[in-house]
């Protein structure tokens, strides 16, 4: 069985493992206060951002990063706006709500928020008898593999600043977005347009870890206190720093994401040539073909993947995900089986 179920089924890129092994017996100060790897990794990230006046924190995973960032930013009566497919709304077991904050979900067929949807949420929540929208949450790429153009992100940034809302970008799959064939954003653009975002390592070849970048000074105050209180301050913080140091030292972050996208493109092309349509239009490492259920039953004998949506009585959209470690041989094997069944 070969898994196309997600982009974190493998461990980590050998260069990251080598870097961790080389540092294994060297002593470091804890809690990301080490004098070597954390400063270097942050310097590399700031180089990508072309911005020095940011605060960078290491976290273990995406749900942790989302929950802590939102809880830290919002007052008790405030809420976050998200697409109805957004990770914070669907796939985090109520983590945001458990901190006392409501997620205001807006219907979006492509998984992206627009200024019109943000304005609609504001128009619905008008007074003190309702929660007060204060943050807009987006992800790039989205849960449907779609992504924001620079113009779209600029438009969202504009309305957020106009309405005094924080703009938070979940970058769990940011590498896939920045290396896709349709991307026109840079890391520096994102740092100019949002208040806070994070760079995903877990889903892009690291063992684990996300780098949270806080741009807005209003969100920086006491953040380490909040990290500690919520159990997110890793004692061996340098283990996260080493990974981001390796990811950004010579461009490994982009190299791995580009490979995942390239493997997905081979899959996408092969599936299209077999005559199948797609549930969502993605140029990144998540693709969503629609297959007859009997074809899915045959494919599941050799491959792992997830159902996405029931289309009708006999067709289902599934999700196929490629990673930094996906081989071209595995991708071509999937296409060969599909071709034989079509």
Question: What would your notes on this structure say?
Answer:
The protein is an alpha/beta fold and 342 residues long. It has helices spanning 14-22, 37-49, 62-73, 87-90, 95-98, 115-124, 150-162, 174-178, 187-193, 223-229, 238-249, 252-273, 293-299, 328-341, and strands spanning 2-3, 55-59, 78-83, 103-106, 132-139, 166-170, 196-200, 210-214, 286-287, 290-292, 303-304, 306-312, 315-321. The strands form 3 sheets. Strands 2-8-7-6-5-3-4 form a 7-stranded mixed sheet, sandwiched between helices. Strands 9, 10, 12 and 13 form a 4-stranded antiparallel sheet that branches. A hairpin with a 2-residue loop joins strand 12 (306-312) and strand 13. Helix 1 packs across helix 11, helix 2 packs across helix 11 (238-249) and helix 12 packs parallel to helix 14. The protein is globular and about 60 Å long.
